[in-house]
């Protein structure tokens, strides 16, 4: 059947099972939006128009992380495309499968500094698994199919397809493939089968270990290996830390869970890392927030890395042994042969240290622990949580016990302030029956609070909690600890009034500064949620209370930086 490139794109999205797109229209992509008009009218594809392309990118990312599907995002040429780059890099560093589709100026105008022309393929090359510019409409369908296969397979990640405007208007013959036929194209992207000799070696190392420790990374979630990992942890009977991206893959309330590891991690996790004799990391790339000093990281331990991406092996730390393969498959094979181990003395030592920060109660004020405990007791156990980046992010990972993969959506590798609200929009769109909670700070929320307009327009009942201490908390604390309290440009003694801002967007909100006030606000938020409405809580935290403890009740940044 002959059809335009724009229609081919729509048909290929349906082939891939895509029914939701996030984006923002513009001149170069108008042919696609015109075709979208028809598909939307038929109820085939839903489009969520955000306030900014960056919000669309984060929403597509949040949709992908929370549903397990590949997210799709549209943007036009020039600034529309470049506005995506922060979102693309965020999904790339966190291995989130998103297909970004941009349109460019017509082919005769490429390379001539035409209006709203940019080499988005060149710009995004370092932050995508693969990117394309389609010069011939006859190649469009195959390119789209390849893009989805690439985004979803192996170590997931973003891809970008750039389509000149005249290609979207050109016509070609199109034959629809069934999902089964499309899936066959993914065979070249399969993860390698683990080597038996590598499995044998690790099993022997486990048998000799007296103080084993596990790290659960984001690869456990991405590899859908949660149950296999939890079984592995129980059989090895090892204290288990999570990375920021591993939240929920290991149940935070599990008796083996020590909390987050690294610069902002718990004392239990960091002490275990320092004292273990075998450290097995699954789906963890040992970033500088986990292994700030690679030469002394887990210095007394044999270090084992299990990962699907060969580029991550021995990149940041040198391993004593590694297994290359899909986390789910590797753990399945290990669990088949693992006996039950017991390490009671070792566990008693590790859990003698706190797994989260301890705070002194100050009458009439809120500590992060008090606030998050109140929130978790009030909202459903399966509430999805998105965060921005900063101290509030670290408090959330410490004090909110995540129970399932995809429950926590946060920017780990790229550290993107402004990620949370867009991600919450994507999560709520993809999971309409779940409550979505957006935890942010007053600095982060200013970045993309314009997406409250999207939340209100589409009746997305997202609850936003702003930890408001009047400063860029994490950077402010670094200035206290390492820059002799020279608080250069990190004090946010300015507007807006976040409750009035919410009202301007048609949402209710309340400012709170005590546990009782927070309880009242959350009760009102639940009532608004039942009506399909979002809510904003401006949670006032005393600045000096926030600056004092960074992590884990005794081990702070300066401790972590010291040998």
Describe the protein's architecture and organization:
This protein is of the alpha/beta class and 563 residues long. It folds into 3 domains: 2-189, Rossmann fold; 196-350, Rossmann fold (3-Layer(aba) Sandwich), CATH 3.40.50; 368-561, Rossmann fold, CATH 3.40.50.970. It is built from 25 helices and 20 strands. The strands form 4 sheets. It has a 6-stranded parallel β-sheet with strand order 3-2-4-5-7-6, sandwiched between helices. A 6-stranded parallel β-sheet has the order 11-10-9-12-13-14, sandwiched between helices. Strands 16-15-17-18-20-19 form a 6-stranded parallel β-sheet, sandwiched between helices. The longest helix has 16 residues, at 515-530. The chain is globular and about 70 Å long. The model is unreliable at 545-563 (pLDDT under 50).
